[in-house]
Specification:
The chain is built from 31 helices and 17 strands. It is of the alpha/beta class. The longest helix is centred in the last third of the chain and has 21 residues, at about 580-600.
Length: about 725
């Protein structure tokens, strides 16, 4: 675990593991199978990536989407970890190269699509490489009772027997009911496994259900209010996706669309535009998003109610993966129920699966109708032991509630259900209550019931809302699948007998409550943040990677709070490891320095000890990660690169400009090389004029501290020049 903690800081830039990560990594390193259920953004990937770097061999990662694999591999390569993927996007030469390099132990992580497991050639590859671990991402895809079922996941359990190394199996997911969890264990083939659920709660996410029949108007107003913030709008059908995207573009918003009806090229371009911050809004069906690694999505709006809680929670969870405050809004209207029933009814699943889908849809409808805490409803669905009553970060908890006693209305509805024998659906119950003259009512003699027409003055939508509320509150049960019927629950019978009152609650405008979130959006320099975002985008575009792969918004905000100006300070920024500090640190510190100078912000002045620390840190060799069992190879030392450029006759300033480093950093590289015995002429660093001034000042002050000498010298003379000049004196050259 010491090595794991070292890699956590070096490659990922974090000082401490998140909840559950240490236990998961420890069990993997001890050779035990693992099942980890962690919320989206909880750091699942790191739990198998760090052990993969430590263990002997290559870890196979089964991942469901091409876009997810590419993002993961690009991110790993950015921080210096050798990884690759095998999927249908590769050309034949690329595939052959990756297979060859995998067989020669080049990679620590190899990502594969589940369909690849059906290939005989892939089975041969497994036999020819040392497999350290098999990690199954989005493991819920193995269960047909969950969502996103992928039949190819059922072949995962065969991988262990194919490999001669008998690797451990690890499975990771963010959404799994107890039923789905059991499927993961059995169908993947976990043995004597360690199991951990770190919780389903995402405190930085605000949940809201908005009942509206003017959804497009709501969306246009919302995105106008949140212009400049990335967001996803999910629609139930391709047609709606096209319509909503078209209206947004027509209103001047930078929106793109994504659904299965688009060509591969257009889908890929639109996804990249969103990931690379070239488009602000993604309008999509549920075909978009699984595993999308964009951290700074500030809102997810569901234009329609999804058909189950699992899908909703995973899709909503794509917001705020960086821990910053974000919103998840579900726009609900009764028509959503009709649409989802139609989609289930016309699906290809068998009757047993459809029955399960109808049950899940009812849970989703109840979520939309509850007046209780939305977070509690969602998390209790996955974790029945969750007992927090109020989250203060959902539309129910943040709204003033106006209660209205509807006991009389409830008794009339329950009485009608009772007299109809509990054998009919809500539509017919409403028709009887309204006194409808449709033929079916007469054929069943329901026009003779005492409840016939008893609520004829009520609008149908009002009756439908009351019935939905009573169902969500547990007074009415719904039975049946395609044609559900209403029955009275035990608590409903108490209402009918006058032993219990019913109150319907209506939300008023939201109260202002303080919400604790991981991110703090108020205590950072917002103008500097925008400048750093522009710089990040420039660097990302030049490297052809999404901006979040350079630095997350959370890292930029930390920079805008701490104003780092030395490498050691830069390494203290959240999410900054050694590789990223080496690649990007100078550019960002220079931008911060220039901003501070322009805005008269006084930055902390580095003293001698800080300069020493920076130089010592720069002298640390950056090694590429290699398999410890094989012969280690060293990436070209960053100091050596500066030394080679020095031998080419380039000045320190020229080297600094070409390598996008500070001059003091280049000087530190060359000073280190000199100490290691490289052939360096000190006169190349200190002019005779500066040398004379430095030595004269030193002889006048004496002692062995550099700081008093530096303070007595003109500001354009650097610590490194002082050291080189004194080195001549101390080695006797000057004498």
């Amino acid at each position: 675990m010491d090595k794991a903690a070292e890699f956590l800081k070096k490659y990922y830039g974090y000082d401490n593991f998140r909840d559950g990560q240490r236990e998961i990594i420890d069990n993997i390193l001890s050779g035990r199978d693992v099942l980890a259920i962690m919320p989206t953004g909880g750091g699942k990937s790191l739990c198998y990536q760090i052990p993969a770097m430590i263990m002997d061999g290559t870890a196979l990662v089964v991942s469901p989407l091409i876009s997810l694999m590419k993002d993961q591999v690009d991110t790993l390569q950015q921080i210096g970890i050798p990884a690759a993927f095998i999927n249908s996007s590769l050309t034949l030469p690329e595939l052959r190269r990756i297979v060859y390099e995998a067989e020669n132990g080049r990679y620590k992580l190899l990502y594969v699509a589940p369909e690849r497991l059906e290939s005989e050639s892939f089975a041969e590859l497994i036999k020819n490489i040392k497999v350290s671990m098999i990690a199954v991402d989005e493991a819920h895809c193995v269960s047909q009772w969950g969502h996103d079922f992928r039949p190819s996941y059922l072949r995962i359990r065969n991988l262990r027997s194919i490999s001669k190394d008998n690797p451990i199996l690890t499975a990771f997911t963010a959404t799994a009911t107890p039923e789905v969890k059991g499927d993961i264990i059995n169908l993947i083939g976990l043995n004597n496994h360690y199991e951990i659920t770190t919780g389903f709660d995402r405190e930085n996410l605000k949940f809201e259900v908005a009942r509206t029949n003017e959804k497009l108007k709501y969306v246009l107003e919302y995105v106008r209010k949140h212009k400049g913030k990335p967001g996803i709008i999910y629609c139930l059908t391709r047609k709606l996706t096209e319509e909503v995207c078209s209206r947004l573009v027509g209103a001047g918003f930078n929106a793109v669309k994504y659904h299965a009806g688009l060509g591969d090229g257009e889908r890929s371009k639109n996804q990249d535009d969103f990931l690379f911050d070239n488009a602000e809004i993604m309008v999509a069906t549920n075909a978009f998003g699984m595993g999308i690694d964009k951290l700074d999505i500030r809102y997810v709006i569901h234009y329609n109610m999804p058909k189950n809680i699992e899908s909703y929670y995973q899709e909503a969870g794509r917001a705020g993966r960086d821990g910053e405050a974000s919103e998840c809004i579900l726009l609900f209207s009764p028509q959503d129920i009709v649409m989802n029933n139609f989609l289930i009814d016309n699906g290809t699943a068998d009757d047993m699966v459809k029955a399960n889908e109808y049950d899940k849809l009812r849970d989703m409808i109840n979520y939309c109708n509850t007046d209780k805490c939305l977070r509690k409803y969602l998390i209790s669905y996955f974790d029945p032991e969750y007992d927090r009553e109020e989250c203060n970060n959902c539309s129910s908890c943040l709204s003033e509630i106006e209660s209205r006693d509807i006991t009389v209305e409830a008794q009339k509805i329950l009485s009608c259900i009772y007299r109809m024998g509990g054998r009919f659906g809500g539509g017919l119950v409403i028709d009887v209550l309204k006194g409808s003259s449709v033929q079916r009512i007469k054929s069943l003699n329901f026009h003779k019931l005492s409840t016939y027409g008893i609520m004829k003055d009520y609008d149908k939508d009002v009756l439908r809302e009351i019935i939905s509320y009573m169902t969500a509150a547990g007074y009415i049960n719904v039975a049946g699948d395609k044609y559900p019927v209403l029955t009275i629950s035990p608590s409903g019978m108490m209402v009918l007998k006058g032993q219990q009152h019913v109150e319907i609650k209506k939300a008023l405008p939201e109260k202002q409550k303080s919400v604790k979130t991981k991110g703090n959006n108020s205590e950072y320099d917002r103008d500097l943040f925008e400048e750093l975002r522009i710089l990040r985008k420039e660097i990302a575009d030049r490297m052809s990677v999404p901006p979040f792969m350079v630095f997350s918004d959370a890292s930029l905000r930390d920079m805008c709070t701490k104003y780092p100006q030395t490498r050691s300070d830069f390494l203290k920024i959240s999410g900054v490891g050694e590789i990223k500090a080496e690649k990007y640190g100078t550019r960002f510190m220079d931008a911060i320095y220039n901003y501070a100078e322009k805005n008269n912000i006084v930055l902390k002045t580095a003293d001698e000890d800080e300069d020493k620390e920076e130089i010592q840190t720069e002298n640390v060799k950056i090694l590429s990660f290699e398999n410890e069992s094989s012969e280690k190879t060293q990436k070209e030392d960053t100091r050596t690169i500066s030394y080679k450029m020095y031998l080419e006759g380039k000045s320190i300033q020229e080297i600094a400009e070409e390598r996008e480093l500070k001059s003091i950093t280049v000087e530190a590289h060359l000073e280190s090389c000199a100490r290691l015995g490289y052939d360096i002429d000190f006169r190349d660093f200190v002019s005779e004029e500066k040398e004379e001034i430095i030595i004269k000042t030193y002889k006048g002050i004496g002692g062995d501290k550099l700081k008093p000498i530096k303070e007595a010298l003109p500001p354009h003379i650097t610590y490194t020049e002082i050291k080189f000049a004194l080195c001549k004196l101390q080695t006797g050259e000057e004498e």
